[in-house]
Amino acid sequence: MKPDVDLVMQGFFGTLLMDVAPHLNAEYSMGNVGIMAMMMFMTAEEHDRAADIRVAENTEMRALFAEAAKLIEDAALSAMLADAAASRDASLRVKALDAANAVLNGLLVELQTYVETSKAAWAGPLDARIWDYLVAATERRKLTFPSLG
Fold this sequence. Notes:
Blueprint: H1 5-20, H2 27-69, H3 75-86, H4 94-117, H5 123-141
């Protein structure tokens, strides 16, 4: 048997919210069970999409770094960007993708700081591209709430 994590978690969500919570007498217990059920629903969603989101983010940041490495006058930062652009995810395990994502995000902060203080003609368009990436990454990670009605 191969448990389908998102189906199992969504099943637990439904059972807790519809079968268990209504039979609890204390509001505190009902609230806790409701929150646990909601977290199970969101965990199921995150489990299903976690690797996809991180691979997409890592790929997009590497492409951004490849472009930026050609523009940046700071040799050390340009080399770090080129190295990061050439890097690859070692595994599709979420913890490994998260570790790579954290390193790339740290470099993105350095790049954005540099770009926002630059007066070069390329700085404005690159800054806009960084912000476009940040908005897209935020949208990608939004969690949905289940329809209960």
